[in-house]
Write a sequence for this structure.
């Protein structure tokens, strides 16, 4: 009888230890301290869109105002999987030899940065496919370089734009002739953060 009592006593203690350990792990998981819980939460966010997964193109139907023209710079996901994009792209003017002209685009804080998820567009065809959640838009402002003194600007013909998608170190070139400043100083390009959207009229 004494042996059975001792065994029962140790059995109860072992059960209590196991229960305490389980409760402790549950508390850590709820608090976000368990690595598996963190990985599960982060798994719900699509990976960032890489430059190679995006088609970068310009809607050349610009909207003019006094001294500037605004264009939609589009980022279309044509990869086989969903990806996300947030923040500002890097944009600069290029000459025919691919060399940068003037300063890179400044940031316009018109809109707060927001994470945008782009669906896979690999199976879509035609411009209609760009309107099903796989394209993000950046508003690009090109200031009329005639607003700057010739000696400050050094007006030249640009052959296109070099565009770095947000958080990427690889770029793509978008052919688009316009008049740019060759000198560093005048900030003739500005971009807003990426927004959900597609072609605008």
């Amino acid at each position: 009888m004494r042996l059975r009592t001792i065994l029962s006593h140790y059995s109860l203690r072992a059960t209590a230890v196991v229960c305490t350990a389980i409760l402790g792990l549950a508390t850590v998981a709820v608090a976000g301290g368990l690595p598996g819980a963190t990985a599960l939460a982060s798994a719900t966010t699509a990976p960032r869109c890489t430059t190679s997964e995006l088609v970068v193109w310009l809607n050349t139907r610009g909207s003019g105002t006094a001294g500037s023209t605004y264009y939609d710079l589009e980022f279309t996901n044509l990869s086989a999987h969903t990806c996300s994009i947030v923040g500002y792209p890097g944009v600069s003017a290029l000459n025919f030899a691919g060399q940068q002209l003037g300063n890179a685009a400044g940031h316009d804080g018109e809109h707060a940065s927001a994470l945008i998820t782009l669906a896979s567009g690999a199976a879509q065809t035609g411009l209609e496919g760009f309107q099903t959640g796989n394209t993000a838009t950046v508003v690009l402002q090109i200031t009329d370089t005639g607003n700057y003194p010739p000696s400050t600007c050094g007006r030249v013909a640009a052959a296109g734009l070099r565009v770095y998608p947000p958080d990427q170190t690889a770029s793509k070139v978008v052919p688009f002739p316009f008049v740019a400043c060759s000198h560093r100083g005048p900030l003739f390009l500005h971009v807003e953060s990426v927004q959900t959207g597609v072609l605008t009229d």
Summary: The longest strand covers residues 54-65. Residues 21 and 115 are 38 Å apart (CA to CA). DSSP finds three helices and twelve strands in the chain. The first helix runs from residue 2 to 30.
